[in-house]
Amino acid sequence: MLRLGMFAAFLMSVGVVWGQMPDRTPNTRYPYVTDMDHEGAYVLRWGLNATHIWFEVQVKTLGYVGFGISRDGRMVPADVIIGWVAGNQVHFQDYHTERYEAPTVDSSQDWLVDYGYEEAGWTVLGFTRALDTCDTLGDFKITRDTQRLIYAYHTEDPDVTSPNPLIRHTVRGRKSVSLMTTSHPPAELPIDSSVIDFTNDNFSIPVANTSTYNCRLFDLSDVNVKYHIIKMSPVFSPGMEQYVDHMVLYRCRIADPASLLVNGASFNCFSDAPDHVQFCREHVASFGHRNKEDFYLPEDVGIPIGGTGESNLYVLATHYVNELQTPNLVDSSGIQLTYTADLRTNDAAFLSMGNIISPNWLQYIPPGEPSFQQRAYCSERCIQWGMNSTQNALPMTVVGAKFHSHDLATEMKLRHVTKTSSGAYVENPWLAYDGAFDSDQQAFRVAEKRRNVSFTDHLMLECTYDSSTRGFPTLGGWHPDNELCRAYVLYYPRKMLEGCMSWSNYDQLRNQIGQPVNGSDVFNTLLATDWSNNNVMRVNLKHALQNSIENAQCWSSRQDPSYAVDWFQQTDITIQTPYQPTETRTCV
After folding, report:
1. Which of 147, 204, 346, 354 is least enclosed by beta carbons within 10 angstroms?
2. pLDDT value of residue 461
3. φ and ψ at 524, to 5 degrees?
4. 504 burial class (0-12, 13-18, 19+ CB within 10 angstroms)?
5. Is 502 exposed, middle or buried (CB count within 10 Å of its CB: 0-12, 13-18, 19+)?
6. Shortest CA distance to 436 belongs to which of 78, 131, 145, 79?
């Protein structure tokens, strides 16, 4: 327990200032901020260095507050703290949960309170812990993977005179957060920075469909000055977050956008899109419905917008999910871009990677698989095409990536393979990785170290799925019941290459009795398979995915021709030395 008077000087030293609550303002101690709930009643701020992380929670209650880290988002097992302010004292302890009952006080108190106070109906606690406490009894190591954070609070303080002072929480929840890979906001934005909104315009979500894709056009042909995009933000209509599954802003270069559709026109992204718009696929920004945080580009890079010869047609694609077919839903959500005329050192861009989604190019995941892998490639020839086949082209410096998949995905890995002078393939450290992927938290992941992708390299996106609790096959597609294997890779300097996708030929697939399956029969063979206790077909499918010919497609709206195709035998890219990350711990 700490008395308030004991740490008043400390509060001043870390920049804690009493004021209007909640305070979401980033500062040098707490550069990262997120709301743990939809109501804004539980605000989390944090900062970190190479060894420690420090948190501040602001909770709309005068009772006790709980916060912690969980393995899977449930309250058990979990590594938690509970604290409150009573009179002139801060009460704070480190606990862990082993079963669904009162938490156990941790014998090793590794979460340390920094300060605590109450103000205007809010409780504020600041506390610190090591990223790796080395405590194997109940503690979780904080890593670059997505962390499952949990929270709880009560309207009243515990009765410290009681033998069982903790009373059951009145509110609890969870949120997945990338504590170590979040984009760092600058101290301040340029004084000339402005914003432009790409939003839906009172779109009425159809009642007849549980899944709807609405696209809206924006013509920026009149923007003749080059600017840099430096920040991206989601914009949600009040109460619509639960219906907006995903928003993506694309762009392309069109000679006369007005000849296609009027500026601001809306249409179904698939059935009603004009031909040219269907190929408007340069990724600019994207947000999922659980990701409400802004994305700040690093201070040495900006994405060009406007200027002579630049992309002029922007398309906002919004995926709505209305499972209960609720009527009278009207939405104006979208994406806001912050831009500046104070151009940064490097022109950046996103490269879209992943599996092609099409009825004829099959992504297929059988049921009952706890760890099923699928790969997508950006081949050497596609990278060369995107660099204008110039051997001396500057390499692509990768800043980070955003992964996109659905509920079955558990692990996402962007692999980087280099061909040596002898022709051997060597794997470099992964460009991006999340060993605890959560489809509800699809935030951009800043690379731990920037790495260069050169003219003769391959990129490989590896997605791992857990279908062990699903009783039916899962196909590739945009609907939440389908699956995706996608990554949006931020890099500089900007190349012509905008997208790089691939799909398997399944030419090595064999049926139940070992006979080769003809290409035209692959789809029906997989759908007709009874996967219960069928290890033969499981082995056959995995063998086919790892050894079949891989087809690739790369594209650019700013290059003629606008796309190229490639194919290669996966077995030709045999990695001689796969990358293995090393874990260093100083525990004794």
Report:
1. 204
2. 98
3. -65, -35
4. buried
5. buried
6. 145
Q: Could you tell me which residues come within 8 angstroms of residue 203 by beta carbon, excluding any fewer than 6 positions away? A: 214, 216, 266, 318, 330, 331, 332
| pTM > 0.90 | yes
Per residue in 58-100, pLDDT (tens digit) is 999 999 999 999 999 999 999 999 999 998 899 999 999 988 8
Residues 479 and 165: their CA atoms lie apart, in Å, by 47
Q: Which residues in the chain are classed under CATH 2.60.40.1210?
A: 2-177
Give mean pLDDT, residues 551-567. Answer: 86
- The token pair at 135 is 């405590």
Could you give the strand order of the β-sheet that contains 549-555, starting from the edge strand earlier in sequence? 445-453, 396-404, 486-492, 349-355, 499-504, 549-555, 563-569
> 189 by DSSP, 3-state: which?
coil
Query: Is residue 9 exposed (0-12), middle (13-18) or buried (19+ Cβ within 10 Å)?
Result: exposed
Report yes or no: 4 and 90 within 8 Å, Cβ to Cβ.
yes
**pLDDT the model gives residue 392:** 58
Location of each CATH 2.60.120.230 domain in the chain: 355-576
Q: CATH number of the domain at 191-347, please?
A: 2.60.120.310
- Specify the residue for token string 């619509």: 240
Sign of CA dihedral 257, 258, 261, 263: positive
**Contact (CB, 8 A) for 56 and 81:** no
**pLDDT at residue 6 above 70?**
no
Q: What pairing do the DSSP bridges indicate for beta strands 301-305 and 346-347?
A: parallel
List pLDDT tens digits, range 412-447: 999 999 988 888 899 999 999 999 999 988 889 999
Is the CB of residue 331 less than 8 Å from the CB of residue 200?
yes
Specify whether the CB–CB gap between 483 and 409 falls below 8 A.
yes
| Residue 522 confidence (pLDDT) above 70 | yes
* pLDDT at residue 251 in the model: 95
Instruction: Indicate the pLDDT class of residue 8, thresholds 50, 70 and 90.
Output: very low
Question: To which CATH superfamily is domain 2-177 assigned?
Answer: Cellobiose dehydrogenase, cytochrome domain (2.60.40.1210)
Across the chain, mean pLDDT equals 91
Q: Is the pLDDT assigned to residue 378 strictly greater than 90?
A: yes
What is the tens place of the pLDDT at every residue in 167-215?
Answer: 788 999 999 999 999 998 998 999 999 999 999 999 999 999 899 999 9
- Write down the pLDDT at residue 3: 45
pLDDT at residue 257 tops 80: no
Find the mean pLDDT for residues 538-544: 97
Name the pairing type of β-strands 42-48 and 112-119: unpaired
- List own/partner pairs for 561-567 with CB under 8 A and 24 or more apart: 562/279, 564/381, 564/382, 564/385, 566/379, 566/381, 566/382, 567/505
**Rounded-to-integer distance, Cα 251 and Cα 350, Å:** 11
CA distance 405 to 399: 20
Q: Specify the fold of 355-576.
A: Jelly Rolls (2.60.120)
What lies within 8 Å, CB to CB, of 13 at 6+ separation is none
The single residue listed with the structure tokens 């945009």 is 478
How would you write 515-545 as a 3-class SS string?
CECCHHHHHHHHHHCCCCCCHHHHHHHHHHH
Contacts of 16 (CB under 8 A, 6+ apart): 115, 124, 126
